[in-house]
């Protein structure tokens, strides 16, 4: 049986190991030590050249008023895993960390922090799982949406995914992420209500099946609605669906806005061309052809290449489930931690795979743009105390293949990470989704088309400052000497 709690909170939406580690920090008296954690992904999804940052609003909603409710604590008490003194402490605990992120809709890349938490190790550890949960999904969907938008051009793009999404929350927040990535409207009415996303829709095959023929169904719909898009493929698109739609449009005349017809099966290149001819032949030049059925950027771009006469694209499953790559794979790593003497010390995670070695130190991401053309030259990941804005020349080099380097003058450096939560208090109010979408579009304008193309894009430079790179090499050496020493002792 499912237990429902009136005071349920989202704070236990975390992995048990976070709470276990917190108990250790608490019992050992180090829980108030400061730390910096950074969140990043290692590979851009869908082999795209960029990603779109999304998830901030949900994070702020989660952090706001974060506390352990009575039933959360009672549940923990009943679990053998936790001790009473630890749970007593949680009762009066308040979140007090600082969080920095780019603005939602920002264009972001792999191997750079897209979120930073600075606070007690206790607080930073507690929110790792929900932060990853939110960003891993929403950034993935916003990026997928942006890819789809890039092939659609300025045609209509409708989000139809709710019925296929991985449960209700995913549908809701995925819809919002899709809008940030460039969709025009959604079929999800609750997303319209909550986020101010325009809602849009046609009708289903059920309507036609209930009336048992296209004409009666379309007529009934037309008599009860002003705006009409008729779904024409239930029985036979060209012989029954479209002729019935045209007949209803003619008979209803000015009483309706005949917006167009939707095709949901068959060869959509062939059908759309035939349907266009039929609509035009009867003077319905402005009636649009909508298409849906397992579409994504690949099928849409193929249909366009075939000269399909489709004006509006409805996309569900492959968007909302990120069908071709279901995970972004973002991680959250501690980069600096306070030692016994109260001093912040940078920390590293070593791996035999170079991409999995973390980059130590609290960092800022600087977007470097040329004065002359306002195009982004790359991102410059520097230690927090560095200020590239004060430099007249910047040496940018690939952190793995260091011989790949360039010197840049006459540039702008813009910091991406901004405070959104300070001392546990949310200080940032998200703009409306339309503003976020427009911001995202404007950020993409600063990218060369080589990075924007959907197929085999060039790799955008994400470079480390010399200081950040030296710091990383130093720490790798320190860890190596420590392991070598242990090896000698054994
Ligand atoms: N001309 C085309 N070129 C490329 N892909 C197409 C074309 N026409 C349709 N498609 C796509 O082909 C896929 C296959 O469609 P599907 O097998 O579902 O056929 P269908 O006729 O829609 O059948 P169903 O009634 O089961 O939905 C869909 O993703 C659809 O978007
Ligand atoms: O194909 P997607 O990209 O996921 O887009 C959503 C799909 O949902 C509907 O089909 P469904 O069969 O669920 O309902 P229907 O009875 O209206 O066709 C719609 O007709 C689309 O085909
Ligand atoms: O309005 C539509 O046409 C619609 C909505 C959800 C899913 N498929 C289609």
Automatic annotation (TrEMBL):
Pfam families hit by this protein: NAPRTase, NAPRTase_C, NAPRTase_N
Keywords, alphabetical: Ligase, Phosphoprotein, Pyridine nucleotide biosynthesis, Transferase
EC number(s) on file: 6.3.4.21
An example Gene Ontology molecular-function term: nicotinate phosphoribosyltransferase activity
Domain (Nicotinate/nicotinamide phosphoribosyltransferase): residue spans on this chain: 158-359
Gene3D superfamilies the UniProt entry points to: Aldolase class I, nicotinate phosphoribosyltransferase
Nicotinate phosphoribosyltransferase N-terminal domain location: 12-136
Chain ranges of the Nicotinate phosphoribosyltransferase C-terminal domain: 362-471
Catalysed reaction equations from the record: 5-phospho-alpha-D-ribose 1-diphosphate + nicotinate + ATP + H2O = nicotinate beta-D-ribonucleotide + ADP + phosphate + diphosphate
A GO biological-process term: NAD+ biosynthetic process via the salvage pathway
GO CC annotation, single: cytosol
Keyword Cytoplasm included in the entry's annotation: no
Uppermost EC category: ligase
Biological pathway: Cofactor biosynthesis; NAD(+) biosynthesis; nicotinate D-ribonucleotide from nicotinate: step 1/1
Keyword Ligase carried by entry: yes
NCBIfam families reported for this sequence: NAPRTase_put (TIGR01513), PRK09243.1-1 (NF006694), PRK09243.1-2 (NF006695), PRK09243.1-4 (NF006697), PRK12484.1 (NF009131)
Family the entry assigns: Belongs to the NAPRTase family.
Function description: Catalyzes the first step in the biosynthesis of NAD from nicotinic acid, the ATP-dependent synthesis of beta-nicotinate D-ribonucleotide from nicotinate and 5-phospho-D-ribose 1-phosphate.
UniProt protein name: Nicotinate phosphoribosyltransferase
Organism: Weissella kandleri
């Amino acid at each position: 049986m499912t237990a429902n709690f009136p005071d349920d909170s989202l704070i236990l939406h975390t992995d048990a190991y976070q709470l276990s580690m917190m108990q250790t920090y608490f019992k050992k008296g180090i829980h108030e030590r400061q730390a910096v954690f950074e969140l990043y992904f290692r590979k851009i999804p869908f082999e795209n050249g960029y990603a779109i940052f999304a998830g901030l609003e949900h994070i702020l909603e989660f952090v706001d008023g974060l506390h352990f409710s009575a039933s959360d604590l009672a549940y923990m008490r009943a679990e053998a895993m936790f001790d009473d003194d630890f749970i007593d402490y949680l009762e009066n605990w308040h979140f007090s960390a600082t969080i920095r992120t780019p603005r939602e809709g920002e264009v972001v890349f792999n191997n750079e922090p897209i979120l930073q938490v600075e606070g007690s190790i206790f607080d930073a550890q507690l929110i790792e799982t929900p932060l990853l949960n939110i960003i891993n999904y929403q950034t993935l969907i916003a990026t997928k949406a942006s890819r789809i938008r890039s092939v659609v051009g300025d045609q209509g793009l409708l989000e139809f995914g709710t019925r296929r999404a991985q449960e209700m929350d995913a549908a809701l927040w995925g819809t919002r992420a899709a809008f940030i990535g460039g969709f025009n409207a959604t079929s999800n009415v609750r997303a319209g209500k909550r986020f101010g996303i325009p809602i849009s829709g046609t009708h289903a095959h059920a309507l036609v099946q209930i009336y048992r023929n296209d004409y009666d169904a379309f007529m009934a719909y037309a008599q009860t609605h002003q705006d009409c898009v008729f779904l024409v493929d239930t029985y036979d698109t060209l012989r029954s669906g479209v002729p019935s739609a045209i007949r209803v449009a003619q008979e209803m005349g000015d009483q309706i806005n005949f917006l167009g017809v939707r095709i949901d099966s068959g060869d959509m290149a062939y059908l759309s061309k035939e349907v266009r001819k039929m609509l035009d032949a009867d003077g319905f030049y402005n009636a649009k052809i909508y298409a849906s059925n397992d579409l994504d950027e690949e099928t849409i771009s193929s249909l366009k290449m075939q000269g399909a006469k489709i004006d509006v694209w409805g996309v569900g499953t492959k968007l909302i489930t990120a069908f071709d790559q279901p995970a972004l794979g973002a991680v959250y790593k501690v980069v600096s931690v306070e030692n016994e003497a109260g001093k912040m010390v940078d920390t590293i995670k070593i791996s035999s795979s170079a991409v999995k070695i973390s980059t130590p130190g609290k960092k800022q991401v600087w977007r470097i743009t040329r004065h002359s053309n306002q195009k982004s030259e790359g991102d410059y990941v520097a230690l927090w105390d560095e200020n590239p804005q004060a430099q007249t020349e910047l040496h940018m080099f690939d952190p793995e293949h260091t011989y790949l380097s360039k010197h840049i003058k006459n540039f702008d450096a813009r910091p991406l990470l901004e405070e959104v939560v300070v001392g546990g208090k949310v200080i940032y109010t998200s703009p409306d989704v339309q503003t976020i979408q427009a911001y995202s579009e404007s950020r993409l304008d600063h990218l060369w088309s080589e990075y924007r193309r959907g197929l085999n894009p060039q790799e955008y430079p994400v470079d480390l400052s010399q200081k950040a790179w030296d710091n990383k090499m130093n720490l790798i050496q320190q860890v190596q000497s420590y392991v070598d020493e242990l090896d000698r002792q054994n």
